[in-house]
Amino acid sequence: MGSLEIKSPGECMETTSVEEGSSDSPHRVVPVDIHGKPITDLSKTGGWIAAFFIFGNEMAERMAYFGLSVNMVVFMFSVMHMPINSSANAVNNFLGISQVSSVLGSFLADAYLGRYKTIAIFTTIYLVGLIGITLCATVSVFVPNQEDCDQLSLALGHCESAKPWQMMYLYTALYITGFGAAGIRPCVSSFGADQFDENSKDYKSHLDRFFNFFYLSVTVGAIVAFTGIVYIQMQHGWGAAFGSLAAAMGVSNALFFIGTPLYRHRLPGGSPLTRVAQVLVASFRKRREFFSSSELVGLYEIPGRHSAIKGSAKIPHTDDFRCLDKAALQLKEEGTGLNPWRLCTVTQVEEVKILIKLLPIPACTIMLSVVLTEFLTLSVQQAYTLNTHIGRLKLPVTCMPVFPGLSIFLILSLYYSTFVPLSRRITGHPHGASQLQRVGIGLAVSILSVAWAAIFERYRRNFAIENGYKVSFLTPMPNLSAYWLLIQYCLLGIAEVFCIVGLLEFLYQEAPDAMRSIGSAYAAVAGGLGCFAATILNNIIKSATGNEDEGKPTWLSLNINTGRLDYLYWVLTGLSFLNFCVFVYAAKKYKYRGEQAVKRGESYPPTAVNPVRA
């Protein structure tokens, strides 16, 4: 059966097809100013100038995020005297919770506050959390006694442990920061994309470049965190390092508010969760109704050009998930007194369908997040055993994660001059590759990255044992350079560029108009679930591969020269390959919203238009 079109009166019943990412779709939502009034002269608002104010906010947020993700593990271990594995798991859980809770920020933005107000509130909360962490690192009463606590005592766990209230304070400040990030992350990319005119002929090109520049700002923030913040910590201490993150966040907040007169806004469309629940309840109530019943008036939609959902254009009907269409079936007995828990519009039903159809794509990126999380901690452990000198310059181990950022920066800089022209010749796609193709390229490259990590780790471990470093796992081996890690880092950077940028653009364009923050939250939730999955995987491996009674170390032993990180990397390689196969299947099944031919089928009733609900 072909797909179906449900149109309002006055529109011709014809089959239409729109290219992926086209801006030619009719009845676009008109942007409004901060007071909710339609903007008549778009030339005075939005565009790249407004986007750059938003880039600054994202750069500072990402700098704080990566600065905490790398330095907090070391801070908990060396200052709060937590075991290194417990520190890594605590930070992983923090990162996971802060990303998964992005659903809350996206809900508030799409339902009530709008993206601008949500960012403004949560970025202030973020700053409060960073100030709290800075106080923890600055005021000695918040940390345990540091006397007689050298490197050996730390490794053996003989240093004074932090008091419960001290850990409570640190966790409170940390999770306030995570709560602030939860409101920023799902909104900032969508709010930036809102600054471009959907009716412009260059809209798709601007959107494509925006998401690349957006991720470039993320990368710059990461590079500063992995270099500048680490340098400040080494030279001036933990208080100065965390204080610099708070100062950067404060400056970015000021710049974000300065740009307020330039921003274009979208009206919040009311609670998306309520609309989803109404569709599910209404379809369940009418589960025994048939599309061919003589008691039906038709599929319900309001008349005119606009939908019943504030901030959303009408969505054409599709033939996916036919069971949900029953929520829009209008019965003769319902008359004019319509109950939204019994009858929903076609657009409302299509919103739910879109949310369901989008799920498999970000779900397939969870595995990439697992790999990123594992690399963030395990590769630093590897670097401690290697020579990090470049000539006479010794690079701090905690700076090693900067290399994926540098590779991302280089790739994004060359993206339009090199990749797009080359791939355009191969694929024929005007932008080099479609959004899903870019996500697939990223997932494929991540497999190569983790496979190389397994190969090198096996070589590194054998080299350590053969050269008498089996026990000295904190002593760098002068004859084996840490820069062999650059191969896996650079491959991972390439994977991030293609996968994450393609995913963000895909979710923004494919999500319903009034649910774009929730669409962006899908990516953040996938990242958070990846952090949790990494922690669960580590716990399973530690319990399944070690035996303390027999003196058998786990794969994730503190002494990585007796552990088997190479086995873990091979497990990740296998899981990544299976995940890639699932993604290929899901991508082939997925149809872009613009590509779906829309025409009415014989087995569906006509649209029933009732002006009462309008």
From TrEMBL:
<keyword id="KW-0472">Membrane</keyword>
<feature type="transmembrane region" description="Helical">
    <location>
        <begin position="358"/>
        <end position="380"/>
    </location>
</feature>
<dbReference type="GO" id="GO:0022857">
    <property type="term" value="F:transmembrane transporter activity"/>
</dbReference>
<feature type="transmembrane region" description="Helical">
    <location>
        <begin position="482"/>
        <end position="508"/>
    </location>
</feature>
<feature type="transmembrane region" description="Helical">
    <location>
        <begin position="400"/>
        <end position="418"/>
    </location>
</feature>
<dbReference type="InterPro" id="IPR036259">
    <property type="entry name" value="MFS_trans_sf"/>
</dbReference>
<feature type="compositionally biased region" description="Polar residues">
    <location>
        <begin position="14"/>
        <end position="24"/>
    </location>
</feature>
<feature type="transmembrane region" description="Helical">
    <location>
        <begin position="567"/>
        <end position="587"/>
    </location>
</feature>
<keyword id="KW-1133">Transmembrane helix</keyword>
<feature type="region of interest" description="Disordered">
    <location>
        <begin position="1"/>
        <end position="27"/>
    </location>
</feature>
<feature type="transmembrane region" description="Helical">
    <location>
        <begin position="209"/>
        <end position="232"/>
    </location>
</feature>
<feature type="transmembrane region" description="Helical">
    <location>
        <begin position="238"/>
        <end position="258"/>
    </location>
</feature>
<feature type="transmembrane region" description="Helical">
    <location>
        <begin position="520"/>
        <end position="541"/>
    </location>
</feature>
<feature type="transmembrane region" description="Helical">
    <location>
        <begin position="120"/>
        <end position="143"/>
    </location>
</feature>
<feature type="transmembrane region" description="Helical">
    <location>
        <begin position="439"/>
        <end position="456"/>
    </location>
</feature>
<feature type="transmembrane region" description="Helical">
    <location>
        <begin position="168"/>
        <end position="188"/>
    </location>
</feature>
<dbReference type="InterPro" id="IPR018456">
    <property type="entry name" value="PTR2_symporter_CS"/>
</dbReference>
<dbReference type="Pfam" id="PF00854">
    <property type="entry name" value="PTR2"/>
</dbReference>
<feature type="transmembrane region" description="Helical">
    <location>
        <begin position="94"/>
        <end position="113"/>
    </location>
</feature>
<protein>
    <recommendedName>
        <fullName>Major facilitator superfamily protein</fullName>
    </recommendedName>
</protein>
<keyword id="KW-0812">Transmembrane</keyword>
<dbReference type="GO" id="GO:0016020">
    <property type="term" value="C:membrane"/>
</dbReference>
<dbReference type="GO" id="GO:0006857">
    <property type="term" value="P:oligopeptide transport"/>
</dbReference>
<comment type="similarity">
    <text>Belongs to the major facilitator superfamily. Proton-dependent oligopeptide transporter (POT/PTR) (TC 2.A.17) family.</text>
</comment>
<dbReference type="InterPro" id="IPR000109">
    <property type="entry name" value="POT_fam"/>
</dbReference>
<feature type="transmembrane region" description="Helical">
    <location>
        <begin position="63"/>
        <end position="82"/>
    </location>
</feature>
